Task: structure prediction
Amino acid sequence: MQKLLSVHLEGPPGQRRGHAFTLIELLVVIAIIAILAALLLPALARAKDKAKATQCMNNMKQLLLGSRMYADDNDDGLPPYGIAGIPPNTFVVVRSGVNTSNDRGWPDNLLSYVGKNTNVFNCPANPPGISWNIGINLNLARSIWCYAGVAAPSSYTSLLKCSSVPHPTTTVYYADSGLITDASASSTNPDSWVEDFDPTHHSGQASWIDWRSVSDPNWTSLPTRVVNRHSGRAEMGFVDFHAEIRKASAIGFYLPAGTPGEMWSGQ
Result:
């Protein structure tokens, strides 16, 4: 029995038995694997970034479609930044409200127009826990007063009509937005701005964009700006409801209103 078992293990006479890899062979295999990984990992990372950019663009297009329907229902009026006079218990996205009077924020005003999908207000390229980082152009988006019998403060007005914007195809209304680090906030090159994800500095929310010139006293104190998240570019939605992806530097963020090349004032 032992002899038969031995013959079975050794195989038929004349057959070469398997042998272990030598150290050199193992090193060659490891080197080949390392080379393949070096070639494939960057491609996989680019594919992942592209997928996130595609999802962000889909979110932007859904926001723009919802904004078009909102305008259709409101006499050509673009979605406002905030609406005063609506009970806070109806807030779903921005629960704390906006403005000093805790108005209902623009994401909640649009929620029913985007199928109540709260994910469309978030850029998938940001770290987990960071939300509300597609911003509205705060220099164009109005705040609306709905308290019956109470006079509206001067900062409240009527909806901005799409037809009142002279250049709707080149005027940004939504874009990837974020709070900028103190170290990069003073730079006048938008492509060098770095997002600040430090939770001790803010709550990770940037649902608005302040378009300011360098001479503005709040240029560095309130640096909520357009940011490049997708291979050096940012997703943007325009007043005519089309979407594009461009570099932040391509829209004249800090240029004065009416200056050739600026795309934030609508002038």
In short: Residues 58-251 form one domain. Residues 23-73 form the longest helix (51 residues). The chain is about 25% helix and 15% strand.
